[in-house]
Amino acid sequence: MPVYHVALFKLKPEADPSKVKQWQALAEGMVGQVPGLIGLQAGAPIALTAPMAKGFDMGVVVHLDYVESLATFFTHPSHEEVNELYKDVCEMGSTIGYDIEF
């Protein structure tokens, strides 16, 4: 059964926009590298919902084949690489994730 993992991020005020784009591209580039990862989309809030974003600047939706693939996703070397750049551009402790099975 497919799983969608959703995370929200708050960028550091001094985050370099080029590093943010690099982080987004690196995250999206994990598709095809991580077993069980079907898709990953990252982006800023759309204008209609931006006032409701409560300070979150970026969102990520991760589509995995099974809930068991979450462990593979979180421990994969490419996720570690994304996480290192995350530390440069995001405030620590500002993420929230929901795992939803359909």
Task: Describe the overall structure.
The chain is α+β, with helices and mostly antiparallel strands. A 4-stranded antiparallel beta sheet has the order 2-3-1-4.
Feature tags:
102 residues, Dimeric_a/b-barrel, Stress-response A/B barrel domain-containing protein, Dabb, alpha+beta, 4 strands, four-stranded antiparallel β-sheet, 3 helices
Topology:
Blueprint: E1 3-9, H1 17-28, E2 37-43, E3 58-64, H2 69-75, H3 77-89, E4 96-101
Antiparallel strand pairs: 1-3, 1-4, 2-3
Helix pairs in contact: 1-3
Model regions low in confidence, pLDDT < 50 over at least 5 residues? none
Oligomerization state:
single chain
Give me the side-by-side strand order of the main sheet: 2-3-1-4
* Radius of gyration, in angstroms, nearest whole number: 13 Å
Beta-strand fraction estimate: 25-35%
Alpha plus pi helix count: 3
The helix-strand sequence is EHEEHHE
- Range of helix content: 25-40%
Question: What's the main sheet like?
Answer: 4 strands, antiparallel
Mean residue pLDDT? 89
Strand pairing plus helix content: what structural class? alpha+beta
Which of globular, elongated, flat, extended, rod-shaped describes the shape?
A: globular
Short description:
The protein is of the alpha+beta class and 102 residues long. It contains 3 helices and 4 strands.
